[in-house]
């Protein structure tokens, strides 16, 4: 029987994971967005409601990441149905936790379910990226791909999708600390220098290769040696008050590595479970010294991506 509605959840995500600018990301399902897609008699895509940690998100579908993503899906499939979207934001705006990507991913997963799954999950990637581009101003999938597929994901190509999930050692815990401030992804991208020094590129390539090899080999020592962003983090650190102290606190607490989550201001660290309380407490205390109230979350990297919550 044809559906009238479908609701999907998509997790938060950590873009770059320090060493893979715009190509590596991990899901963080402690937080996430929900989108309900409902058939409508009005043609096209409509944003019927935005609730939760919504801020002032645009209601015009072409300017909203969820709306734009579903427009892309409808255009590609030639399906003429009208769809109304209700977006429930669980990810704070401008937090560096992939909120715009999560809304786009939840929207295409819900709409695809509603329409009888005309697209494979891999085909949904390009539509979700088309949506996320509205917010970030650039076409990259390091938040969209992990939100869609779950886990630690490297994106080699968007359309057609070329993504690979990387197994993270089960001992690894991810600590995410979100200071209560807004940072614009567009601004955090605008300040980046267009050129990279050759020696930095070489170190970053070695670190990306080392992190992926360390994950496959379950080698925490190799992960510790590799989880260091020498290319982007030094340029963005000044946008986050206290970043150097937050990172120092994470490393002093035993973290394997610590860097900016996506474009920031959230900061993440990988560590072993026993170290997680010291890492997390040290990071939040460092933000507090800069008068920033910060919320910490700890979770395994896991492998759960977007999924359907409800349909009928
Ligand atoms: N890779 C992106 C960045 C993530 O760091 O700018 C945010 O869209």
Short account of what is shown:
The protein is α+β, with helices and mostly antiparallel strands and 312 residues long.
Topology record:
Blueprint (H helix, E strand, L loop, with lengths): L4 E11 L8 E17 L4 E8 L12 H13 L4 E8 L9 H16 L6 H16 L7 H6 L2 E6 L4 E5 L5 E8 L5 H6 L7 H20 L2 H7 L6 H4 L6 H10 L4 E4 L6 E6 L3 H14 L4 E7 L6 E5 L1
Parallel strand pairs: 3-4
Antiparallel strand pairs: 1-2, 1-11, 2-4, 2-5, 5-6, 7-9, 7-10, 8-9
Helix pairs in contact: 1-2, 1-3, 2-3, 6-7, 9-10
The structure holds L-homoserine.
The site of L-homoserine (HSE) has 13 residues, from helix 5.
Describe this structure in words.
A hairpin with a 6-residue loop joins strand 8 and strand 9 (267-272). The protein is globular, with a radius of gyration of 19 Å. The chain is α+β, with helices and mostly antiparallel strands and 312 residues long. The chain has helices at residues 65-77, 99-114, 121-136, 144-149, 185-190, 198-217, 220-226, 233-236, 243-252, 276-289; strands at 5-15, 24-40, 45-52, 82-89, 152-157, 162-166, 172-179, 257-260, 267-272, 294-300, 307-311.
């Amino acid at each position: 029987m044809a559906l009238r509605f479908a609701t999907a959840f998509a997790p938060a995500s950590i873009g770059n994971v320090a060493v893979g600018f715009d190509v590596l990301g991990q899901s963080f399902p402690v937080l996430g967005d929900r989108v309900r897609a409902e058939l409508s008699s009005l043609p096209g895509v409509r944003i019927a409601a935005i609730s939760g940690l919504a801020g002032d998100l645009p209601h015009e579908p072409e300017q909203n990441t969820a709306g734009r993503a579903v427009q892309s899906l409808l255009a590609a499939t030639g399906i003429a149905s009208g769809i109304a979207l209700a977006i429930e934001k669980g990810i704070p705006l401008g937090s560096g936790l992939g909120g715009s990507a999560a809304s786009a991913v939840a929207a295409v997963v819900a709409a695809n379910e509603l329409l009888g799954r005309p697209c494979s999950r891999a085909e949904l990637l390009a539509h979700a990226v088309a949506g996320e581009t509205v917010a970030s101003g650039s076409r990259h999938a390091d938040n969209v791909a992990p939100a869609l597929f779950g886990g630690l994901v490297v994106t080699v190509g968007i359309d057609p999708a070329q993504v690979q999930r990387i197994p993270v050692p089960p001992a690894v815990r991810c600590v995410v600390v979100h200071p209560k401030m807004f940072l614009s992804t567009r601004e955090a991208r605008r300040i980046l220098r267009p050129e990279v020094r050759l020696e930095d590129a070489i170190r970053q390539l070695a670190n990306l290769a080392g992190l992926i090899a360390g994950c496959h080999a379950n080698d925490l020592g190799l992960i510790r040696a590799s989880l260091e962003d020498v290319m982007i983090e030094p340029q963005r650190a000044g946008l986050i008050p206290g970043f150097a102290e937050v990172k120092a606190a994470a490393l002093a607490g035993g973290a394997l590595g610590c860097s900016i989550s996506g474009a920031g201001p959230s900061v993440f660290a990988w560590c072993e479970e026993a170290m997680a309380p010291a890492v997390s407490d040290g990071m939040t205390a460092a933000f507090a010294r800069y008068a920033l109230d910060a919320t910490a979350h700890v979770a395994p990297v896991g492998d759960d991506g977007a999924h359907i919550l409800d349909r009928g």
